[in-house]
């Protein structure tokens, strides 16, 4: 396994996803606050949800990165990297809006208490946090700690996969925001 390419691929996915999310903050108020006909969230609510989900995922990623770094003192990193296999199909479905039923916890639902500027700033900080963890675990240490992820039955996933999951989750909602926006254009 080429760990440097693996990490670079995650960084690239993060950059493309976070850049696209950031672009949504530049939309006009009418687009951001349009209530879709299906009764779903507005784009502004979706952006807040992305922030909230990132917030809670980053708590797990931070704990995981610390444990992975601690484990790197005692575990065989080469063996872990050699035996690693990536379940690309299950992960890629995470990024597809509507690909499977997703029941989110209540604490990840938008409350509408933050301005778009606040949310944008926080999401930018979250992107930088992800890059920081990838830098800290630049030699493959992220393989040395796993946490259970129940979404789409992913099971035990390593710290790198958690970061990738965070990026895929945002990607999933980009599709949702595009659907909302297309509805505002029709009206």
From TrEMBL:
Leader sequence residues = none
Q: Which residues form a coiled coil?
A: none
- The DinB-like domain covers 28-177
Instruction: Give the domain of life.
Output: Bacteria
Q: What is this protein called?
A: DinB superfamily protein
């Amino acid at each position: 396994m080429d760990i440097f390419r693996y990490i670079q691929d995650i960084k690239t996915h993060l950059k493309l996803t976070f850049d696209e999310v950031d672009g949504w903050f530049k939309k006009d108020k009418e687009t951001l606050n349009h209530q879709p006909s299906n009764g779903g969230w507005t784009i502004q609510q979706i952006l807040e949800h992305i922030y909230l989900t990132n917030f809670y995922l980053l708590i797990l990623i931070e704990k995981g990165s610390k444990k992975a770094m601690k484990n790197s003192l005692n575990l065989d990193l080469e063996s872990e990297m050699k035996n690693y296999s990536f379940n690309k199909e299950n992960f890629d479905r995470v990024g597809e809006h509507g690909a499977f039923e997703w029941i989110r916890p209540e604490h990840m639902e938008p409350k509408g208490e933050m301005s778009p500027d606040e949310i944008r700033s926080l999401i930018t900080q979250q992107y930088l946090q992800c890059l920081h963890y990838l830098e800290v675990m630049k030699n493959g240490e992220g393989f040395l700690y796993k946490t259970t992820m129940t979404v789409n039955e992913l099971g035990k996933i390593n710290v790198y996969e958690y970061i990738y999951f965070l990026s895929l989750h945002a990607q999933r909602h980009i599709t949702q925001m595009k659907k909302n926006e297309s509805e505002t254009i029709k009206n």
